[in-house]
Amino acid sequence: MRRPVASCSVFRAVIYSRNGHDFTERFPSIAQLLHDLPAKAAVLDGEVVANDADGLPNFARLHVRWTRPYTIHLWAFDLLAFNSRDLRLQPLVKRQARLQTLLERFGCPAVSLSEPFEDGLALLRVAEERGLEGIVSKRRDAPYRSGECRDWRKVKTVAWRETNRERWRLFERASFRSVADGQFKWQGENGSALFVCDDE
User: Fold this and answer.
1) End-to-end CA distance of the chain
2) Residues 6+ apart with CB under 8 A from 33
3) CATH number of the domain that 122 lies in?
4) pTM > 0.85
5) pLDDT tens, 96-110?
6) Total of domains in the chain
7) Residue 37 sits in which domain range?
8) Do residues 8 and 34 lie in contact, with contact meaning Cβ atoms separated by under 8 Å?
9) Cα–Cα distance between 53 and 58 in angstroms, integer?
């Protein structure tokens, strides 16, 4: 999986990593799809996923996507701007409602809404059963803030922690250090990206 932010317009779609790198050429199929998003301009936050034969996310396949014909899917979970209007100060629940409306109008099977779940523990159990890395929990009333903050948390499954013990120890140390410093600075292994569309 690679977490992206995308910028889209009637003329072009650009995919940025969380570090500001242009990933558009790495995921041309997603960029082409977003070109047809029903908006003059939009900025989406989401996760690019390559699935295995069972339909589960496969991070290794994502890295070799451009040499093998794996299916790429975008799971969008936030809408930061729409038609030149900045939505970041609105609560998450309102931004997601706008995103749902936009994607329903779009009707593209390769771009889906990552729907919220009320029962986080039940969702974490499903992630555990399916061998996934974990889940992300967010405050419904929070505005959008870039980078790590207390408005959202990534929760790892037990199986992932056991398989990646050294990475988890680094994660724990970074988490504790961040609490002591009053700011969460750890950045995980999954990439982030921004999908931006504009008419300029």
Assistant:
1) 30
2) 13, 74, 108, 110, 111
3) 3.30.470.30
4) no
5) 999 999 999 999 999
6) 1
7) 5-197
8) yes
9) 10
